[in-house]
Design goal:
This protein folds into 3 domains: 150 residues, no CATH class; 89 residues, Phosphorylase Kinase, domain 1 (2-Layer Sandwich), CATH 3.30.200.20; 188 residues, Aminoglycoside phosphotransferase (APH), C-terminal lobe (Aminoglycoside 3'-phosphotransferase, Chain: A, domain 2, Alpha-Beta Complex), CATH 3.90.1200.10. It is α+β, with helices and mostly antiparallel strands. 28% of the residues lie in helices and 17% in strands. It is globular, with a radius of gyration of 26 Å. Helix 7 packs parallel to helix 10 and helix 9 runs antiparallel to helix 10. The chain starts with 19 loop residues before the first strand and ends with a helix.
Length: 453
Amino acid sequence: MSNEWLCGVCRKSIDGDYGAYSCNKCSDYVVHSRCALAKDVWDGEELEGVPEKDYTIQDVKPFDMISEGVILHFLHDHHLLLEVNILYDEKKLCQACDLPIYEAHMSGISMKSTFSLFYGGTHHKQEKKMAMASLSICFSTRSNLPLYSSTRHRNFVTAMSEDPIREWILTEGKSNQITKISSIGGGCINLASHYQTDRASFFVKTNRSIGPEMFEGEALGLEAMYETRTIRVPKPHKVGALPTGGSYIIMEFIEFGGSRGNQAELGRKLGEMHKAGKSSKGFGFEVANTIGSTPQINTWSSDWIEFYGEKRLGYQLKLARDRYGDSAIYEKGYRLIQNMASLFENVVIEPCLLHGDLWSGNIAYDKNSEPVILDPACYYGHNEADFGMSWCAGFGESFYNAYFKVMPKQPGFEKRRDLYLLYHYLNHYNLFGSGYRSSAMLIIDDYLRLLKA
């Protein structure tokens, strides 16, 4: 996906002039509200002197209204949700009331001019005409938006409270003006945006269907890694609920460089984070979090083998059994759990702060080629577990050499390596289907032979 959203109907840029609907499953599918509700666009004829008519199209029904702010469009398979956190320009003023136009408060834009205004009482299914010059206006906004009143300041304050992201940036974020908002591609679960202001830049992720708990777990992980002062991570600022459902997280925006940077530096700094991030509570984390969209149970335990067996491998095996009816992988996997203790003989295991999901998509380099790690699934565990996604991280010899200078390699490291890969193969099996089952089963079978279990 490019760094801009393209309308799924007209293929033009989503720039905020018309609002937008976004898919609740496909993070990169967005449609202008004008395009999604095209049947409500009036053709501009007979402005005066004729009573309004019902212009509902009878032959083709381009969309079904599922609920308030949710439609099913004939061009897409999934529900589309009215997006309230959409791009806007603070310099664009309503020509009727002189207030700034932004987000879902923009009701319509003329098809034939730049005239725009607030209108709070028009429902998606209604069609209104205005006898002003030769303008045609499509009112495509929610019925529960506040009507304009003569008390302009009060109306603006109400609008502020309905947009917690904007409110935080302009208050606690100490910015006077949001100058630009750009979409950022790459994620498969959340929508991501870059907010630029006159003072700073912020990275914002939103999810329209999941509550704040997911982002709270991410924020606590980012904060824990940030506090080690070892490797660069974006500093989290704010997590909250969206007024129309879902949640958001605001964090520091880091501008990335064009190169992959120095793998040795990544290895060294990851080792420093593992060395600095210790827990007196044992293995686990302050809250449950997610790896991808899979829940990650982090209840504290004093025993790493028990924690990894039950709360990592065991949880994924139960998911596979319950989701796919896969009793074979469940039974073999539990045989491995019951016999894997011998793989940890003569190993000193201390609870280290782990990123938890360290693959190439969560590793970047800033403008100074310093490594940055993102989107964590943090917990305190055996340091070797952070190599569990190495099969799609591209770690080379220089990475491991630098890492082991900080955190020396323990006896039996090579024998345990696949055990930590297994957790992530099982998670991918549960998330994405049977394509990952064979890799997980191969690891389980190899260990059962090795352990004679």
